[in-house]
Amino acid sequence: xxxxxxxxxxxxxxxxxxxxxxxxxxxxxxxxxxxxxxxxxxxxxxxxxxxxxxxxxxxxxxxxxxxxxxxxxxxxxxxxxxxxxxxxxxxxxxxxxxxxxxxxxxxxxxxxxxxxxxxxxxxxxxxxxxxxxxxxxxxxxxxxxxxxxxxxxxxxxxxxxxxxxxxxxxxxxxxxxxxxxxxxxxxxxxxxxxxxxxxxxxxxxxxxxxxxxxxxxxxxxxxxxxxxxxxxxxxxxxxxxxxxxxxxxxxxxxxxxxxxxxxxxxxxxxxxxxxxxxxxxxxxxxxxxxxxxxxxxxxxxxxxxxxxxxxxxxxxxxxxxxxxxxxxxxxxxxxxxxxxxxxxxxxxxxxxxxxxxxxxxxxxxxxxxxxxxxxxxxxxxxxxxxxxxxxxxxxxxxxxxxxxxxxxxxxxxxxxxxxxxxxxxxxxxxxxxxxxxxxxxxxxxxxxxxxxxxxxxxxxxxxxxxxxxxxxxxxxxxxxxxxxxxxxxxxxxxxxxxxxxxxxxxxx
Length: 508
Ligand code: ZN
Fold this sequence. Notes:
globular, binds zinc ion
C-alpha cells in the first residue's frame, strides 16, 4: 500500500542522514550479536569499548542541529500530507525520537552508561554470593539516576511515565496500575484453584534429549511457521534474544538444555515471533526509524502469541507431536499426546519469572512493576526492597524465596538499566497477544483448523498485513484500536486463561 506522495528534497536529505545513523547502530548490533554468540570471553572489555564508541557516534550524529533543522524545514510539508502516509509517519516518528534524544545531556548519557556497567558487575557478584547488601549502594545510585532521567521530561503525571513512554509510548503508570490491579484480582483465585489440585506430571519433558536433535526439530517447526532463513539464522546463546541489522537480516538465538525439552523449543518459537514482526516490515522503511516494532509491549505480544496461543495449543501439537515422537522415540513413543500437552502447560507457584507458566507469569511481572513505582515515588527504600519483594511473593504467589539470588536478585533489568520503564511490557505483551489473537480468529475463523493441519500461512499473513508491515507508523494504542476495534483490555486474556485452564484443571 504505497501512498503516492510528492517527495520533498529535504526529506531525501533526512533519509540519507538517518540511514547513515542506522548503519552505525546496526554495526553495533552485529558486534553485540557476536559477543552474545561466538566471541571468546576475554574479548568483552574491547567489545564494550567498540560498541560504546559506535553508540556515541550514532547519538552525536542524531542530535546534530542539522537533523533538527531538517525536521523544522519539513513541518509544512508534513502538515500537507495525510497523517497515515509513509512520509508524514517518517517525519513524525523521527521528530519524536529527536526531541527525546536532545533532552538528555551528553554527560548524563556517559555517566549513566559507566554506572550501568559497574552496577551490572556488582549485581553479577551479589547474585553469585547471594548478598544483596553489596549491590545496594549501586542500586541506590541507579534509582537517583532514573529519577534524574525522568526529570529531563517535566510535566509528567507520575515519575515513571517518561521511562515507560520511551518503550511503550502512550502508556501511563496510572492506567497500567489500574489495568494490572484488575488482572491480579482475576488471576489470584485462578492460581489458588489450580494449585489446590495435584500438579500435572511433566516428567516426560525431563528425560535426556540430544542437543542436535532438539535444534533440528525447532528449526523444522519455525520454518513451517514461516521464518525466512534467507533473511535470518539461529545461533546458541546464554539468554535468548532476537536482533536485526536490516529487514533482510533478522536473527534469533536459543539455549538448549539436554534435560529439559521445553527450553529450546519454546524459546525458539518465542524469538521467532519477535523475528516475524521485524521480517514483516514494509521494505520501503529500511534504514529509517519506522523499521522496527512499534513498542516493547506490542513486540512482546507477537512473541507470546506464537509461543503460547499457537505453540502451547492442543491443535499445534496434534500436528507436531507425532513428528516429535519420531524424533525422540525412546523418550516419547509411550507418552500420550494429552500427557505431553498437560506437561507443557503445567501451572505452579514458582519463584523464577522466566520459568513461570502462562497463568502465574503476570503475577511475577506485576510485583516488579509495583515495587519499581514505589521506589521511584520514594515510598520504598532500596534497603527495604528484599523484604518488600518477599512479602509480595508471599501474598501474590503464596511462596517466599528462601534467598535473594532467586528473589530480588534474579532479573538483570534494574541492575543494568533504569528502575522503571521495562517490566510493564511483559504483561502488556500477554494482554495484547490475546486481544490480537481473538481479532485474528474473528477475521479468519479457519485458523484453528489450519493450525491442526500444520498450516500457519493464514495467521502469519493476517498478522503481517495488520501489524508487522506498519513498523512504527502507528503507536501501540492506535494499532490495537485499529486491529481489534477496541482499546486495550484484560478481558480477552482472562477469557483465554479461563477457557484453556478451566478445561485442563476443571475448576470453577
Ligand atoms: Zn520476548
